[in-house]
Amino acid sequence: MNDSAFSHLASIEPGSVWLVGAGPGDPGLLTLLAAKALGEADVIVHDALVNDDCLKLARPGAVLEYAGKRGGKPSARQRDISLRLVELARAGHRVLRLKGGDPFVFGRGGEEALMLVEHDIPFRIVPGITAGIGGLAYAGIPVTHREVNHAVTFLTGHDSSGLVPDRIDWEAIGRGSPVIVMYMAMKHIGQISANLIAAGRHADEAVAFVCNAATPMQTVLETTLCRAEADAAAAGIEPPAIVVVGEVVRLRPSLDWLGALSGRRLVSERFSDPQRKETA
Q1: I need a surface site. Which of 84, 89, 136, 191 has the fewest CB within 10 A?
Q2: Per-residue pLDDT for 166 more than 90?
């Protein structure tokens, strides 16, 4: 890339930390600031969801430190990761904390930034394209569509204990949000589906799993709320995955642009049935 594209952008200063979102996978979705940070950082502390192709943009000689956290697998403690950022900055390094998606969307970026504040470490936040938007776009599923929904809810499928969050008002979400996008929900999709059906969602409502979004390994499973758990198990799909509930899933036959590049014939779709539209 022409260096002039970066000339007006901020640079990482020694002794500081940048908390940067790497997007959902495709390195083409990195922001200019993220790409510049990769080319300047002395140490890159990255999580498990950062695509290796993004890390290939690191400058020669940069140190890569893995700090991934994956459910059910040995992982670094969050406090230890945050303190490591402090230690590296105090040593005078230009530190890049690289996170999949966006650091402030279920990415614990706020926790790490607060630790930096506590220790008087200068930092910068560089947003990224969150998987709940970018990953669905790569699957041909829009988060909003004027004929379908005027609201969307983003939620996490488990809390810090690994259980379904008990502070989520499933009845309110089920009643009030026509489209629900869920991070880290595969492990508890059976319980979550039951909660939503109990809250009034139709058992045959469209659901999609988007696994390894925006990478060459991306897979998409289309199913329904009542079949989600069984179909996911039968298909053998595994995290990382985004799960979306709502009629926007039914637009995929029309908008699967990646599929079209491989020969899939897209079909036009119109939502003419008022029962399939969001209630005004």
Answers
A1: 191
A2: no
Tokens 């695509």 identify what position? 51
pLDDT higher than 60, residue 278: no
53 among known catalytic residues: no
pLDDT at 162: 78
Selected catalytic residue, list 36, 102, 182, 184: 184
Residue 74: pLDDT band (50, 70, 90) is low
Peptide bond into 216 cis (omega under 30): no
What are the structural domains, with CATH classification, of the chain? 3-129 (3.40.1010.10), 132-276 (3.30.950.10)
Catalytic annotation present for 69: yes
Instruction: Calculate mean pLDDT across residues 141-149.
Output: 96
Of these residues, 26, 47, 102, 256, which one is catalytic? 47
Q: CB under 8 Å to 180, separation ≥6 — which residues? A: 152, 153, 155, 173, 196, 244, 245, 246
Q: Which two tokens stand for residue 195?
A: 């909660």
Is 169 a residue of the active site? Answer: no
Choose, from 42, 53, 69, 187, the residue flagged as catalytic.
69
For residue 181, CA distances in Å to 113, 207, 232 come to: 25, 10, 16
Using the predicted structure, report yes or no on whether residue 6 has a pLDDT greater than 50. yes
CA distance 242 to 225: 14
Is the pTM for the entire model greater than 0.85?
yes
- Inter-axis angle of helices 78-90 and 109-118, nearest 10: 50
Distances, alpha carbon 156 to alpha carbons 4, 18, 55, 188, 192, in Å = 40, 25, 26, 11, 11
